[in-house]
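Work Package 3 (structural annotation) set out to generate three-dimensional models for the target panel prioritized at the project kickoff. During this period the team completed the workflow that converts sequence records into discrete structure tokens, so that structures can be stored uniformly alongside our sequence database. As a representative example, we reproduce one entry of 334 residues exactly as it appears in the project archive.
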Amino acid sequence: MHRMTRIAALALVVVSIVLAATAIGLARKPSAAAPIPVLTDVGRTERTPAVTVIVAARDLHAGHPIGAEDVTTTRAGDRPAGALPSEDAAVGKVLLRDVAAGTPLAVDDLARGIAASLRVGERAVAVPVDELSGVGHRIAPGDLVDVFVHLRLGERGEERRQTRLLLSRLRVLGYGGDDLAPAPAREDETAFDDDPRAATIAASAGASATSRRRETTAARSAILAIPVDQVQRLLLASQQGALSLALRHPADTAVADADLFPQPRRVLSARRDLQPDDRDALARPENIAYAGTDLDALAGSAAAAPPPPRPAERPRTASIEIIRGDGRQSGGTR
């Protein structure tokens, strides 16, 4: 028994020595290097990456067409709601409100819709269409069309019909429920900037919705962009006759030359006492539209009235001087 006690004590001593050696070894092993602190600028804090924002380069007023010199860019912490994605999205647009210099430009600040698609001197006019007059409803916004008019003239028993080209190469701004103007941008559309697949899917969904709407709703009107001096002709033709739209190729630029034919008489005649500059102003589109036209002029049965004769100039007279001797005598004319 005494021997067993000795053996146990000796084992404990050995274990103690092994543990002590292990502890000494761990104490001498080099520890992992602590990260070296990186010195930064005093007061510098981590920020969200800045984004580019389109702002007004100077004070702009409502109704002003935005030019390239009117916009610039700045950096901001985040993009304001409805902010424009680029300068190109602003150039050429018209402001709806006053914008101070440095103010971010938003989609709601710009004119949009059909009015923004018109050019200077144009007006948007709706005309009735059906499946026959609308080329089987194959017309889409952005297409070019010719307008033909079918007139019935005269009384019953002496009625005569007329069909002719009325206007050429008119832009279609809207057809049925579709129009040329882009839909207002939504706040969540900025999510498409970095994901072209999402934009493609959204565009496809919009196109599908448009197709479904076309299949279920027959168009009853087309909105055309018309020079202001031709609006009265189109309105009169739509009220007194029937219109048909003829779809044409975009590259076809041939149009009728109106100067080859007598000009129609206007409803309002020009004043007789107009000065030459005022008479030149009669050819302005707005004044032609104001003078108007009637059914006879539309049908080509009334040519333009000749301009009022100018007052005849009094003939100049020349005096004859007769010299007789030392005296002179004036008299006689020729």
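Confidence is low (pLDDT under 50) at residues 183-199.
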